[in-house]
Amino acid sequence: METIQITQTTANDFKTEILKGVKIQIDELKSQFQPKEPNEYLTRQEVATMFNVDLSTIHNWCKSKKLNPLGLGARVYFLRSEIEASLTPLNV
């Protein structure tokens, strides 16, 4: 183990310098921190309600690969982010 000797400084000065360095590192981390948003899953019924369409339309969109369904057992879910990404702008 290495030994570090600090000379010509008081304990308070040393403590202050350490705290300054730590504060700078924390501030830098805070500025770069991007919290990850959890995935929001929607059921078939929620997607149908969102677009004001029937469940058969949601089924057809899945078969034609317009929507990417995710399954858990007998349940079908969709990622909200994928639903929003599948929307395309209209040329009006």
UniProtKB/TrEMBL annotation:
Residues 41-87 form the Helix-turn-helix domain. InterPro entries: DNA-bd_dom_put_sf, HTH_17. This is Helix-turn-helix domain-containing protein.
